[in-house]
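Data availability excerpt. The first of two example chains:
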Amino acid sequence: MQNFFVKSHGLGNDYFVLNEAELSFSLNEKNIQKLCDVHYGIGSDGILLKVASSKADFGLKIYNPDGSEAEKSGNGLRIFAKYLFDYGHTSGKKFTIETLGGVVTAEVSQETNGKASQVRVDMGKAIFGSHQVPVNCDESECLDHPLNMVDEAYLINCVSVGNPHCVIFRDKLSLAEILKHGSEIENHPLFPNRINVQFAKVLSRNEVEILIWERGAGYTLASGSSSCGVAAVAVKKGLTDRNLSIKMPGGTLHIEIDEDWNIRMEGEVREIASGYLSNELISEL
């Protein structure tokens, strides 16, 4: 099964999975960019690479389409968990996965025709310390901190859920606004490792709507870690209860945050295609 891949999506956020043990080529920055390209490769929001782990049942490396490595991805973790379950890498429904952002627990919470259709992930703790996010902020926690663009002034809220997030609450969400300012905020000097950006609108005590600019990927229809980051900030600021739904253009995720800031995320995942990378494509890598 050399160079076998599975492509799936979580609420429109699509990744394909490769197994490091089955690859005949190096997964370097150039090759990642080509494989993720919609015209010259498979096309995706990123690559999930199954690797060995000494700390968990499975190891996972997450690559953005620009070739950079991400610490954690909620949708990516659900997609990876589905792959592990569907393709017989595990006989159990609950297992641990090591990521660059730490070890998480995943559980297949719903099956359809013997395939995982819904996955629950314990995403770890929300961390608000400025130096841990990281964000170059004088305050110990970066909440309601001013960030001035050329033609807009924002109050930002920063959190890490294994990867960094910048949450901006708005009375009205605008796709044009996040497309205009997303990259600028992502690459702002305040954020030494760049940052994921979310514009959020609180709809009720149990529901928040968001738009997402993903670090290394750009505008995306859905993001699990972004949903967790927004939920954590909303709870921290007293805007919502601890059990809430995050609505995105691609769909809805359900998030629970306990008193110790542990985050649990649950949502659907669907396979798109599976197959083998062609010899013609591999010859160009």
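And the second chain:
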Amino acid sequence: MNVLFVADVYGSPGRRAVRELLPDIVSSMGIDFTIVNVENAAAGFGVTKDTLEEMKTLGVDAMTSGNHIWDRRESLPLLDSEPLLLRPHNYPPGVPGTGSRVFTSRDGVKVGILNLMGRVFMRELDCPFRTADREVARLKDEGARVVIVDFHAEATAEKVALGWYLDGRVSALLGTHTHIQTADDRVLPGGTGYLTDCGMTGPFDSVIGVKKEQAIQKFLTLLPTRFEPAGGDVRLNGVHLEIDETTGLCRHIERMSLALESAVRPATA
């Protein structure tokens, strides 16, 4: 089966890229299942009911998130009411929502999605490694042969380590959070597709999505600064996976970067 993962959607520019590019990608590449990370979809911080509905009308099958899912109070009830929306699963008990669920593709394949968050340079959460042990087994017990992990983490070493730890047990481990796409897409020896960071869907004439002037001012003064999404050089970053649905192993992984203006994939190193 063909799976598309769309990297962190940032504000209205990112949503526009998804709106204008996703239908053609799904059609031309024969995509069977689409996952989108939406934690920054609403003006760069969290989600709203309207942003989720927009993703659903485009045929998105599952939505993951990260630390910014908590930035809007209105996001919290959506985690319980919207079955397509996940948050990092290794938060303590009692927080809204879940980060581990089995979905069904258009052709009836059960797809397990696990959303985790790292602990290095981030919040002190439950261990993502031990959480993965438990949840991957549970997703497979529920019939999911295809299991995809969105690991929302800061440290490259933590992402690489979890990739090796889960090699052969999940179809793919895809890193998110830094908004900078890495060039290490590969299939690990056990059959797990891996990429340290999938990048960002949004404005690249920016500092990871934010207007350059605002980010620079924050670094110069260390004063609180209101961040707003930039608007130039809008791109869709993501990953295309070819997965054997009978074994759950990844046959091929390829990172993607599509410019909205040209809708042509730039050459990759």
